[in-house]
Amino acid sequence: MPDDKDIQLYLRSNLSEKRCLHSRRTAETAEKLCMLYGYDTKKGRTAGLLHDIARELSNSEIFELVERDGMGISSIEKEYPVLLHGRAGAVLAVEKLGMTDEKILDAVRWHTTGKPNMEGLTAVLYVADYIEPGRKHIDNEFRLRIKEMNLNHLVMEVVRSSIAYCRMKGYSVAEQTFMLYHDLEKKVS
Ligand SMILES: [Fe+2]
Ligand SMILES: [Fe+2]
Questions:
Q1: Cα(71) to centroid(ligand 1), Å
Q2: Are 154 and 92 contacting, i.e. CB atoms less than 8 angstroms apart?
Q3: What is the pTM of this model?
């Protein structure tokens, strides 16, 4: 299993300064959310550090990596390969860093699109990536409300906001994101 130092070294040689900083802030946010919701804070930190390791790869490198997880590629993913950088990152984390923790790998794999029945560390990372302090679209009022929400509520807020953002920008929304939205509609009243 890689330790923080191994991961930080990998990040520094494979990601831009800007994304290294985003990864560190996501790690700190995931750590705090793990504390709030009762999950392993160390795993939250590791998942946050790792989550974007494939974010700056070329489209062809991303396709090559996800071919190895056996989950196939949808037409939206073919059109927007960036949606696959979580899955590609999980493959990289195993192959380049020797990551074996399935909870951490699952969180990295689904941090971009989310997936239905998302819980625990996977839900925490999905939220942390969206609300880390560098994200200027999240206002203080929202940050203050976090402590009053359970994790499903918080994920629902993030899903709603990211679907609205995609629509505003004219981007397609991944099928898994809609599936997550419908799953949460049943759970969050
Ligand atoms: Fe990402
Ligand atoms: Fe990210």
A1: 19
A2: no
A3: 0.95
Structure-block tokens of residue 84: 């696959």
Cα of 183 vs centre of ligand 2, distance in Å, is 23
Rg of the chain on CA atoms, in Å: 16
Please name the fold of domain 4-187.
Answer: Hypothetical protein af1432 (1.10.3210)
- What pLDDT digit, counting tens, does each position of 92-125 carry? 999 999 999 999 999 999 999 999 999 999 999 9
Q: Please state the φ and ψ torsions of residue 71, each to the nearest 5 degrees.
A: -95, 0
Reported as half-sphere exposure (CB side, CA atoms, 13 A), residue 78 has a value of: 4
pLDDT tens readout for residues 42-68: 999 999 999 999 999 999 999 999 999
DSSP string, 33-54: HHHHHT--HHHHHHHHHHTTTT
Domain ranges of the chain: 4-187
